[in-house]
Design brief:
Blueprint: H1 20-25, H2 28-33, H3 41-55, H4 57-61, H5 75-78, H6 87-98, E1 100-103, E2 106-110, E3 127-128, H7 129-141, H8 146-159, E4 164-165, E5 168-169, E6 178-184, E7 189-195, H9 207-224, H10 227-230, H11 233-247, H12 277-291, H13 299-322, E8 323-325, H14 326-333, H15 357-362, E9 368-375, E10 378-384, H16 385-393, H17 399-411, H18 413-416, E11 425-426, H19 431-438, H20 458-468, H21 472-485, E12 495-496, E13 502-503, H22 512-526
Antiparallel strand pairs: 1-2, 3-6, 4-5, 6-7, 8-9, 9-10, 10-11, 12-13
The chain binds alpha-D-glucopyranose (GLC).
Protein name: Alkaline/neutral invertase
Function: Invertase that cleaves sucrose into glucose and fructose.
Keywords: Carbohydrate metabolism, Glycosidase, Hydrolase
Length: about 550
Amino acid sequence: MEGGSREPFGLRAVGSHCSLSEMDDLDLTRALDKPRLKIERKRSFDERSMSELSRHDGLHDSSYSPRGRSVLDTPLSSARNSFEPHPMMAEAWEALRRSMVFFRGQPVGTLAAVDNTTDEVLNYDQVFVRDFVPSALAFLMNGEPDIVKHFLLKTLQLQGWEKRVDRFKLGEGVMPASFKVLHDPIRETDNIVADFGESAIGRVAPVDSGFWWIILLRAYTKSTGDLTLSETPECQKGMKLILSLCLAEGFDTFPTLLCADGCSMIDRRMGVYGYPIEIQALFFMALRSALSMLKPDGDGRECIEKIVKRLHALSFHMRQYFWLDNQQLNDIYRYKTEEYSHTAVNKFNVMPDSIPEWVFDFMPLRGGYFVGNVGPAHMDFRWFALGNCVSILSSLATPDQSMAIMDLLEHRWEELVGEMPLKICYPCLEGHEWRIVTGCDPKNTRWSYHNGGSWPVLLWQLTAACIKTGRPQIARRAVDLIEARLHRDCWPEYYDGKVGRYVGKQARKYQTWSIAGYLVAKMLLEDPSHIGMISLEEDKLMKPVIKRSASWPQL
Ligand code: GLC
């Protein structure tokens, strides 16, 4: 039942102090002590997008006309990039609209799947916060921001609920994993039930939901120019509550966020507990997004100060300890162990014997990536798609690291993309390791689902990363693969197999984020200036760390 104590929001119709893009470009310290500038949003966003785009060779050279479609192209791809949209686009829009959920007449989200081919609904008939993100971006890019605004406000209300698992009360800031609108046809009323982890398989709270909420609030603001939403006391409070869960002082010795297994897109036990890259990258992006929206008044100022400090420490930690390339791999391979005191090189006491064999073959001479996890005597060398793409989008990765991530992707196309973009992680766990790490999970068998399965939804993140790094041609290759199969296979949730050839064993059909992810990728390629919604430029103060490794020549 719907509950919670918050008042409906009276949105102030006031002008903005400062454009978001303006704030993004401010140095972190300046954000603390300079008054905001009064600049008209729309203009500065367009200008910045264009300057961003012109900096990337690939984009500049390859035919993008300023606000839209490609005009010059190679004959091979000219059909694709002509003014004629692919027929799949219309199908996708129809399917996306069919998934829309209404609450008392207003659109508030999209269902996870509208699969009429199975009776086994589980919780796919709910609006998932993370699943709604590509839907929201598609609507924003299409000039339909209302559903996004209603979603942001509805989930904010849900955040205000008291949340419990058995007798244990969850933190105030926790955002739901999903919610469901229940329609009572007799009384003609709508009510909401929400899940904060208390019903979820494994009973884990979704750490990513709050981060996606903040990232989406920024995307909405950036796309519409409507600062009145993010500036409401309710939204300001919502952001602070989410972040206070992460910025509280405790026993931590690292700036990364310690989490339980299954607290994000991979919502089952998959050995992603500790400091998983997906959460760290989203955390970083949410911190930077919040910094561009928080007002420096009252407790806002204190929160901003904490964010600034955390961003410095987090970017250093991630760039230094999570980054892996050929040189770094060689260094770890030669690590001494049992070092004590500040002079230790192998700070986490990683045993070189724990480096899996596959990494040595997988790692190209040119290229690199952020590894899956780093903790005491623990390095998870697996490659994860979402964490690496979000690292590029948020500029957690330095420009050189972003290029290296794309180099690796190109180099290992067969393994990471194969026949269906994009592997959720690489490689899979098998045999004894699968038994120990997943607890014998029959849904996560090798090369399936979260265990090396291929997820079409990841196409939008890949495309956005390609555009940000000036390599749209990589995204086009991936889109071609999707267009060859996704519609024919009825938009599955995921594919199985070493190259992603088979529709996933238990995959839903008409999975909304597969549909929306495709639309977002297409719209991004068509109008790359949309990238500003979901990308943050590098902050000048978070200078790249000087690293021993330099496996690629000057880029
Ligand atoms: C699965 C996925 C999760 C997604 C949900 C709804 O549980 O692992 O990431 O949010 O389905 O699609």
